[in-house]
Amino acid sequence: MEAEEGGGGHQPAPVGGAELRQQRLAKLARLRERGVEPFASRFDRTHTAHQAIGLFEEAERRVSGPVAEYPVRDEVRTDPVSVAGRITRHRGQGKVAFVDIVDGSGKLQLYARSDRLGPEAMEPRPVSGSATST
Question: What is the pTM of this model?
Answer without folding.
Answer: 0.56
